[in-house]
């Protein structure tokens, strides 16, 4: 299914100043004294072996050990104590917990005294290596991240390293960890990635739809009471010329009235995978009594959370490239390195946005207020909406204050989307549950820009322009010379 993952030819211009290929030990289990190793029949294992790597690799269930005697630090000694501890510690499995939203969320939940297990195949790190991309921020291995967290706070996070498309692996993780809630971030999440070529389109839909289907079967089989909190996207709705409701709309048609799922108009193979996920989840809530919350998240910006700030080894990833970078984060990096801000087409594209600190808050709120058995809830998870032109103006103004000369250019839109349209999406349900939004402010923009300036020497400017076209996608694997 994922042959392209081991292909040595990448579709985008590879960076010359970045690691040319992934480190042999990237996925190894090389923490000899401390790691409990469990081998599962994961397809990821065979992928790794197909890559002609010499060492033996396996999917591991690892408990990561202390780094040093810092680990003697007492449990709960982190500076960010919980104010809303669950009365009974709740076991939360964070699928995709090594990624941008997942890492911040895993730390936040652990800090709030939830028992956290991270499930991740590390495939995202592999995409970066293959496409010659890198996070603006240096990020530590998942093992170092978890060990550092333990050394700082005394809190342990379990690690299950494997692919959720492998049901045997997923069953083992469920049986071993026995989650009360599963937060599912573990998908291929880039629309441009899904539009590179046929094999990436197929991989995206396979990975996302089958992975989620496996999670649903695992809940049915091994944890009926377990609450699924699934990350969807506001992109599922598209840009209709009416207000977007939270999941459902009441329609009167030919004199009869019903409340129905809000129409979906996805605009990439990635977004379509999310729509299919939502349908599968809704169906299994009805058919099997699964309890689920579909969080239709807007575009996330920002880097710091209370927990990631505690140590540089806890630092989150920050994508700025044309494939994985999201709008505001990209603009801040572009401003920092003196690259014109890249507005696609007319720039009237309007979307919902939120701070990463609100992503972690929203997920916690969803877990603490679970859906009822059989209930399929949909929350629109964003706090403000902006057009691309508005974001460019905000970054230009903030840049001026820091002495940056920020230019904006319109580049041909590689996507197929409306560039001027009506957009008004509801987002009240998480506020009703207690979300206290961090709205985009001048000070946040200053800090994002300063952060981008701090790491500007790591920017590969060749990765900034978009080079995946919705119209030109073909069956031939895209390749570039190294
Ligand atoms: N970042 C955003 O702005 C944004 C916006 C809306 C929705 N979302 C959704 O939030 C979720 C997380 O996004 P992110 O930005 O953190 O993405 P990310 O790519 O940084 O993280 C995803 C993680 O999932 C893992 N993963 C992928 N497939 C897997 C599999 N089959 N088995 C195990 N692990 C797997 C990856 O290795 C990675 O660590 C995604 O579902 C995405 O669609 C993100």
Automatic annotation (TrEMBL):
CDD domains: SQD1_like_SDR_e
Cited SUPFAM superfamilies: NAD(P)-binding Rossmann-fold domains
Domain NAD-dependent epimerase/dehydratase per the UniProt entry, residue ranges: 92-380
Organism domain of life: Eukaryota
Compositional bias ranges of the Polar residues kind: 73-90
Spans annotated as Disordered: 64-90
InterPro entries: Epimerase_deHydtase, NAD(P)-bd_dom_sf
Family classification: Belongs to the NAD(P)-dependent epimerase/dehydratase family.
PANTHER family, per database record: DTDP-D-GLUCOSE 4,6-DEHYDRATASE-RELATED (PTHR43000)
Protein's name in the database: NAD-dependent epimerase/dehydratase domain-containing protein
């Amino acid at each position: 299914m994922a042959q392209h993952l081991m292909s040595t030819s990448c579709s985008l211009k590879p960076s010359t100043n970045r690691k040319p290929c992934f480190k042999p030990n990237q996925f190894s289990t090389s923490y000899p004294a401390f790691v409990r190793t469990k081998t599962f029949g994961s397809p990821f294992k065979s992928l790794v072996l197909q890559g002609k790597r010499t060492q033996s690799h396996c999917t591991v269930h690892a408990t990561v050990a202390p780094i040093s005697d810092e680990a003697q630090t007492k449990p709960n000694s982190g500076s960010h104590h919980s104010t809303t501890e669950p009365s009974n510690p709740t076991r939360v499995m964070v699928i995709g917990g090594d990624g941008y939203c997942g890492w911040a969320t895993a730390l936040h939940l652990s800090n709030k005294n939830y028992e956290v297990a991270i499930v991740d195949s590390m495939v995202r790190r592999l995409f970066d290596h293959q496409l010659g991309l890198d996070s603006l921020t240096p990020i530590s291995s998942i093992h170092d991240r978890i060990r550092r967290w333990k050394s700082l706070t005394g809190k342990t996070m379990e690690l299950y390293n494997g692919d959720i498309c492998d049901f045997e692996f997923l069953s083992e993780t469920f049986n071993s960890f026995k989650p009360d809630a599963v937060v599912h971030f573990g998908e291929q999440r880039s629309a441009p990635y899904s539009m590179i070529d046929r094999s990436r389109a197929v991989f995206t839909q396979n990975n996302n739809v089958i992975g989620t289907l496996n999670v649903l079967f695992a809940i049915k089989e091994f944890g009926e009471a377990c609450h699924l909190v699934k990350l969807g996207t506001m992109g599922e709705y598209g840009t209709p010329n009416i207000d977007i409701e939270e999941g459902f709309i009441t329609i009167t048609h030919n004199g009869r009235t019903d409340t129905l799922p809000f129409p979906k108009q996805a605009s990439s193979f990635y977004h379509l995978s999310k729509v299919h996920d939502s349908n599968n989840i809704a169906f299994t809530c009805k058919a099997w009594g699964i309890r689920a919350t579909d969080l239709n998240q807007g575009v996330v910006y920002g880097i710091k959370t209370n927990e990631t700030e505690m140590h540089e080894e806890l630092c989150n990833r920050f994508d700025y490239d044309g494939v994985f970078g999201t709008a505001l984060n990209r603009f801040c990096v572009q401003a920092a390195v003196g690259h014109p801000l890249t507005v696609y087409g007319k720039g009237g594209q309007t979307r919902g946005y939120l701070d990463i600190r609100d992503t972690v808050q929203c997920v916690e709120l969803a877990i603490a207020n679970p859906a009822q058995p059989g209930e399929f809830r949909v929350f629109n998870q964003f706090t403000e909406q902006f057009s691309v032109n508005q974001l460019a103006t905000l970054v230009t103004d903030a840049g001026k204050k820091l002495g940056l000369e920020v230019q904006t250019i319109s580049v041909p839109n590689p996507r197929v989307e409306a560039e001027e349209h009506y957009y008004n999406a509801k987002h009240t349900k998480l506020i009703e549950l207690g979300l206290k939004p961090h709205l985009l402010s001048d000070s946040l923009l200053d800090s994002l820009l300063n952060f981008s300036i701090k790491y500007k020497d790591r920017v590969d400017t060749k990765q900034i322009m978009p080079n995946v076209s919705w119209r030109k996608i073909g069956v031939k694997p895209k390749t570039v010379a190294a």
